[in-house]
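Page 37, top half.
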Amino acid sequence: MKKKSSLPKIKAPAAWSARLKKISAQQENFIARKNPVDREWDNGVFDRFVHPAITYRHAPIDWRYDLNPKTNPFLMERLGVNATLNPGAFYWKGKVHMVVRFEGYDRKSIFAIAESANGIDGWRFWDEPVDLPELTPETNVYDMRITFHEDGCIYGVFCAEAKDPNAKPGDLSSAVAQAGLVRTKDFKTWERLPNLKTPASQQRNVVLHPEFVDGQYAFYTRPMDGFIDVGSGGGIGWALCKDITTGVTGPEKIIDGRAYHTIKEVKNGQGPAPIKTPQGWLHLAHGVRACAAGLRYVLYMFMTSLEDPTQIIARPGGHFLAPYGDEGFGDVSNVTFSNGWVELPDKAKTVLIYYGGSDTRCYVARSTVAKLVDWCLNTPEDALTTRRAVDQRLALIRANRALLDR
């Protein structure tokens, strides 16, 4: 793709043509809109931006409208777009790309790739969505993580959802989630591999590690007893796979578990594939807790050892990024969720973090590898109790007071 779609050169009534010209111009103006840094936000760790990166308004006109005046005389949207969310991300041929979860009015999600020269604004979808091979009986797929693996292939791991075959008659909500797996070398032709087969009955938020570990493929998993509930266990797991073409893994072990009265007491899961730094692997994850408004999803970080990616070496307490302003409102409010980030090949080692806001639209935050490493290594761990939290806060205040000679 990579070029702007042109309007059809067809005979149509003047009013119809005028309407098409109007909505086309509106979309082009919207895509061309700059996305400045939000100057009201400043925590020293990352930048936020004034506008979302991608919304339903970025969807190409020919993906939504029937552009035949004979079959669509009023130029109505035939296939509406409900949400653009939870994007995977990658850097490719000098541009930043998102693999957007593109959801229609019918609740079905497809994958659609959008690109931007700077990763902040000017996003434009490729000519067509991803032509993903299907494994029956899946009904819906979503939230793809992209991994450039050292085996030379590019992998996408996503949630493949199907109706629970053991659901009782009349139960149209129970579902089964598995980790779907595809690979490509050009993002155009996709080979569908078998779904991952782990000891857990269900899987979501599975991510492929970028390197072999002990000569095997390594996956971050999230074992679950049910489609929503993680059950008695839960947490970010780890499993090795000898042959990725079979999808069969060995045993799972939890490397980052849940904890009472924390931002990840209900469930947690790996976000994108980790970023390798000289100090260790940088991880971005989501944590979920219950509150009066329902479930609250936030992002948090941790680091693991280069020698053993299952060993956590830094665990900053609390959330890294949470719903802010309009990010907290949408189809499923109070949610930030990330499965994509990109390290740019610039001197600053800029990191662009892409996340879904309340299951409705895509946002971007900007930091650097140095800042994220500093955040992880020097932010205190969760104190876990009020008394220890008081001690932690007092230690900071008193150290600052002594430093300022007050």
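Page 37, bottom half:
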Amino acid sequence: MNLISILKQILQEEKSKRDRCLRIADRKFDKPSAYKSGAVVRCRKGKIWKGIKEDEQLTEKQKETLRTWFKRKGAPGKTGGWVDCNSPIRKDGKITGYKPCGRQKGEIRSKYPSCRPTPSKCKDPGKGKKWGKTK
């Protein structure tokens, strides 16, 4: 073997090795982008991802995708889906649930809908000042 082929082989091995920062960036970003390369540079400088280990598995909350988020159980009964926090279902003066977000044909509601994925999120204040959950 001559010297050139040995150097080519060494360079190819170096290219195939991916450092820790690049492997973490591959997990966090789907495709190549300026954000990904910037994150790799910041990681190599030691500014981000200091405590992240390579073999660290994603938690269940991080695995949640937009599809699973929309499939969450919300309104009672067969309808499921998101709930309208401005239209509670009351029994004996207590709130037992919320109507599903979206109106049925011919249905009239007094307030603008404040839709949330689950009834527990109705406790969080909304962003609207004139509509939505304000308290």
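Margin note: The first helix runs from residue 3 to 16.
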